[in-house]
Design a protein that fits this description.
The complex is a heterodimer of chains A (about 220) and B (about 110). Chain A has helices at about 5-30, 35-40, 45-75, 75-100, 105-130, 130-155, 160-185, 190-200, 205-215, 220. Chain A has ten helices and no strands. Chains A and B meet through helix 5 and helix 6 of A and loops of B.
């Protein structure tokens, strides 16, 4: 587990503890509240997993949008810094997968995940250079990648049907493509609205993934 | 009694064959070859079985440098492919679709 992932898990834990404190405080004002603290607590491993995945996946979109925005605006230093941060995020996501499925899975996941970032870069370059064929190929590669990603997760966890995951990843591709297109059109208002939509959509991937992992390993994440 | 001995002998033979197959088998799962490195004797048949819900290939050589010794497509989950290694040596292979997937067969 690398430092950034530990920090994220730590932050998640702090947030969960704060959340637990708030809920207990609120419960004190409701004398009729009968639910047990365990049932209402957000300080659980399942909650930490869900928060961590949501944080990492949303961060992925914000950093990807930063990188493509900098690249399309010709801000080289910004692009390099954003791309480096994006890769650190990729490593952290792979570590999160590895923390559940082991080191081998982590090693297999990372290049697969990085692959789709490479396709997004290809799309950005295609748009920036008005190379329609390159941009179209990148979109096709990204759609193909969605099948790979779905297959990987289904192989890891039978609670995640390949087709469902693939559709969610396709939607991720579409939302990020909208961001890149707006950035290329030099329409910052549209780009940031699209970026919020794209980041928000990642919950549609993170939540079912967390849910499926908890279902698969109730002893590790239950309670 | 004789029948009993025959049945036991048959069971042992089946078990031995199954063990040998398992020892010479490679599972393709979670976008990995498992085991990634396998050692076998000359003229051994190695069998790959796909456990992923997606197509993989078993392609001899390295990404960008396939050597043409074999190139199998494992269509979907449950698909298998086999190859007999006739000469000693180290045989590397990879998946053309997912080129981070690499494996090696060491033939003695």
């Amino acid at each position: 587990m690398n430092a950034s992932f530990r920090i994220l898990v730590g932050i998640t834990g702090v947030v969960a503890v704060i959340g637990m404190g708030c809920s207990q405080s609120m419960a004190a004002h409701e004398s009729t509240a009968m639910a047990s603290p365990a049932a209402t607590s957000s300080n659980t491993r399942a909650a930490a997993l869900r928060t961590t995945l949501n944080t990492l996946f949303a961060e992925h979109v914000w950093l990807a949008g930063s990188a493509t925005g900098a690249a399309l605006a010709g801000r080289d230093a910004d692009f390099k810094a954003a791309a480096a941060a994006l890769d650190q995020n990729s490593v952290a996501i792979a570590k999160a997968i590895g923390s559940v499925y082991g080191n081998d899975a982590e090693q297999a996941f990372l290049p697969l995940w990085r692959k789709h970032i490479g396709f997004a870069v290809d799309y950005t370059v295609g748009v920036a250079t008005n190379d329609r064929a390159r941009a179209d190929k990148a979109v096709n590669d990204l759609v193909g990648y969605s099948q790979d990603f779905g297959a990987f997760l289904q192989s890891a966890n039978p609670n995640l049907p390949k087709s469902v995951v693939a559709d969610l990843v396709k939607h991720h591709v579409v939302t990020l493509k909208t961001v890149i297109d707006a950035q290329a059109a030099k329409d910052p208002e549209k780009a940031y609205v699209a970026l919020r939509t794209a980041a928000g959509h990642m919950q549609m991937i993170a939540d079912p993934l967390a849910e499926a992992i908890v279902k698969q390993f109730p002893d590790r994440f239950g309670g | 009694m004789r029948m009993q001995r025959l049945v036991i002998g048959w069971a042992i033979a089946v078990a031995a064959a199954t063990t040998a197959d398992a020892a010479n088998g490679v599972t393709v799962q979670l976008f990995q070859f498992r085991p990634g490195n396998i050692a076998v004797a000359t003229d051994t048949r190695v069998t790959w079985t796909n456990q992923d819900e997606i197509e993989h290939t078993i392609t001899a050589g390295l990404p960008g440098r396939p050597d043409g010794a074999f190139d199998f497509t494992l269509g979907d989950k449950g698909a298998t492919a086999s190859f007999v290694f006739p000469k000693p040596g180290t045989y590397t292979y990879f998946c053309r679709r997912h080129q981070h997937m690499r494996g090696e067969v060491n033939v003695n």
